[in-house]
Amino acid sequence: MLRVGLTGGLATGKSYVGRLLQSFGCHLLKADELGHELLARGGACFEATVAAFGREILAESGEIDRKALGAIVFADPGALSRLNAIVHPAVFAREREWLNAIEIREAHAIAIVEAAILIETGNYKSFDKLIVTWCPEALQIERALQRGASEADIRRRLARQMPADEKRRYADYLIDTSFGLAETDAQTRTVYEKLLSLEREGLHS
User: Fold this and answer.
1) What pLDDT, on a 0 to 100 scale, did the predictor assign at position 204?
2) pTM here?
3) Which of 90, 107, 124 is the last residue of a domain?
4) Do residues 16 and 56 share a domain?
């Protein structure tokens, strides 16, 4: 089985590329959704997170208010490190379980884990290949504005992320999403065909 990481900066088309690869026949796991599950009430990270940050992060429903939690951790690097220490090991463990389960069922699968901070956590080293989506920062900002985010919030998020130009240096396969969906589709299809060839030949490194 070929294990592939997929990452990219804010509004670079990472999720679109992930869905496209899934439509081609790859298995896809979204690490951000895993994190949400783990922080949900009853999830593996819920109690530890409430203990670390206090009950003021809880909404009236009893669930963790991710906006309230985000306001705390993104204003304080130490708080973000504490949250990451709770959540990341659990996310990585769930990813391994998912990958191993697929390999048991389908020895020649292509399994993709999509994660926003795959490089920053060092977890990219767990994969045979890494796909990075990229576009210029001005286009990232334009796309994020179209989604309804404020420019101040966008710039804060970009400042917290590894610069896109730095991320692209880690890529085994770079998909430049600057030129519209048709071009992105074509690049993604080319990457998929390369991955398929690698898996068939057993050339995972």
Assistant:
1) 57
2) 0.93
3) 107
4) no
